[in-house]
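INPUT
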Amino acid sequence: MESTTKPRRIAEASIFMHTSDMNEPILTGLAASGGMAEGLVRVILDTHHHEDFKEGDILVAKVTEPSMVMMMNKAAAFVTDIGGITSHAAIVAREIGVPCVVGTKSATQLLRDGMKVHVDGTKGEVYLL
Amino acid sequence: MTKEYPAWIDDCARSIHQAFVGMTPADWGPLHFFECYRALNSTFIAKLYDAVTALKEAGVTPEEAVKRFASPSGFRAVFYFAILEYGLSDHTHGKEAREVFDYFNEILQRMFKRDIWAIKSNIIHTDEVIKKLESTVQWANANPDIARSVARLGNSASALSYSLYRDYYVAESQEVYGPYDLGDDATLIIKHYPKLRPTALWQSAESFEQTDIKIYLMYRNIGFKCEFIGMHTLYEGDLMTSLEKYAVEIDGVYHNDPQAIKQKMEYIGELAVEQWKQYESMSKEDIKNKFLEWVCHAYKEFFELASMDWHPTYQMYAAFKGKDIPDRLILDGWPPYEEYVNSPDWEVYWLRELYAE
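OUTPUT
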């Protein structure tokens, strides 16, 4: 376990450069974009834009679609059911500097709107807080 | 040629396989593209063959043809699609297909300075051009907040590109070039979004404010590589803290002010969302016809250079008519490399067979 340091907020997203003691991850997948973030889950099951998606929410989807661009530009992290290292979510996450875990298989089934989670994009893990 | 087939086929195979294993083919749409090319059954290759023949007869060199493709990755992609169409066809147009592939290989050789199939990089600018860009681009100093805003603008432009061209032809309007070594651990990456106002494809694009966006990014101490499609970027290092200078050029005008970047990011992102909604009102036949337009639009300027109408031919429409093509590619993943290059189920086998004849 890495040493715990004081969380450092970056830009508008709730991205924390620390690791704290936590329970076992609720989900694991492919570590597609490094870094860590905490926020409230928003499960997006369609390709429509959701006006109430807030800055710092965690975008959870089966896969991301370009139609989700406005939400992706606000999200603190992405978690998807399927995807590889050059899937849409993975590429966008690396470009905009947010953590991303892809290929979890069941994120949209296990996570619910409003759950607070910690996303470790470096290890490919998602923790329930 | 060192074997029974041209050497480029091996590089092409390695590049395509490397790129596809990391993607999510089960999600590609809006149609099952293998079935689309199977349905075309070389009717588009016939159009390409006519264009290549006309260009050769007119004495147009590949050097001139290169200029008709705005995105090198887009050209690599449509080259691959042409191979796929031949492979999935009844193989009765082998001669025509070889003529087209040989001509396209000539174009690729002239388009790139090195790493033609983008195994690691996507380089088309000469050292002289890069030096000139270093001194002529209107650079602004970056910080992590601006780095993220600029990246989000790129995400918006990319999303609009996807909305206009969908998964198979998206590379027509987005490209990432690099890495260009500037010395002292500095690296230049250029993101280019051409053809963002394709009025020949979409009437809705008439009202778009922008046609072409270039984002210049000067990093220090990062690693960069890309794949077959340049926008499939892979980095080492923190892009937010490593960006030292940037420039945003939209239709020849610089927009480096953070507020202007945010406004453009939101405007273009909203265009992408609105454009995406159009698919909801399109019938399956509308989507099939749009697919044929995408197929041809990628070569619009190329066909015009050959004095041909760029639109799909009657034969292409006839080949598609009545065909039940699934909405999505149903494929869980890509086969291992050895299987990919040796199995008659895949394009590399067909290519080798074609050139061995």
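end of record. Chain B touches chain A through 38 residues (CB under 8 Å).
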